[in-house]
Design brief:
- This protein has 232 residues and is mainly α.
- 71% of the residues lie in helices and 0% in strands.
- The protein contains nine helices and no strands.
């Protein structure tokens, strides 16, 4: 009769991933990047729709508030220098919010793609992180792409190279904030109420975010200055 040798170490029968957790890092990272790349790739397949979403509204803000009102004498000559960073920040926040919330709502509703994502060899929280990272990248692109448009339409001088690290940091932070808000809206709000919710959210974000005016100039309207400070 053949007998199996006794195992000296009872932990030797555990899976290699249990004894060496670092071995699971690479496959998880690879899956995470694949999920993120899929979102980026599908966005590049429809560049016209994405660019219209990114460019049209802020370009109209530049033209109306910076050009038309300036030539009509309603704004001073340096108003473009105030408007440009505000529109860049607004565009980064709104685009990241929309590109996180809307795909998530479609995943939860008629497409049912959220089930496929949760079946991927990836922890559930990282599925949400991938959504946030994708929205952040969209918002960062939306903010940066408006800089040359602003310089051209508003006629303002370009910023020195020393200013760009701070610009990138603020845009990345604002884009991540917008993506986080989009993640919350996409999971909490039902699909049949998302249009009303966007109307209630986007308008206050647009007009209370110190985009068309400096926040420091609201000292005589203290209550509105507080509201503008709460706006991300």
């Amino acid at each position: 009769m053949t007998t199996l040798p006794a195992t000296a170490d009872p932990e030797s029968n555990s899976a290699p991933a249990d004894r060496y957790p670092w071995r699971t890092v690479r496959p998880v990272t690879r899956t995470f990047l694949a999920v993120l790349w899929r979102d980026l790739f599908t966005t590049t397949r429809r560049p016209t729709a994405f660019l219209v979403q990114v460019i049209v509204q802020p370009l109209l803000l530049f033209f109306v508030f910076g050009k038309v009102l300036g030539e009509a004498g309603y704004t001073t000559g340096d108003f473009g220098a105030t408007l440009l960073p505000g529109v860049m920040a607004l565009n980064a926040l709104l685009v990241s919010l929309q590109n996180t919330a809307m795909p998530l709502i479609m995943d939860f509703s008629w497409s049912g793609e959220i089930e496929d994502r949760l079946l991927a060899p990836l922890p559930g929280p990282l599925v949400a992180v991938a959504k946030v990272v994708f929205g952040t990248l969209c918002g960062l692109f939306a903010g940066l792409v408006m800089a040359p448009f602003g310089f051209l339409v508003l006629g303002t001088a370009g910023w020195p190279p020393t200013a760009w690290p701070g610009v990138l940091f603020v845009l990345a932070l604002g884009s991540a904030t917008g993506a986080g808000i989009g993640l919350m809206l996409g999971t909490v709000v039902s699909p049949d109420r998302i249009s009303v919710t966007f109307s209630l959210v986007l308008a206050p974000l647009t007009f209370t975010g110190s985009v068309q005016y400096p926040w420091s100039s609201l000292g005589h309207v203290r209550w509105f200055q507080v509201i503008s400070a709460v706006n991300p």
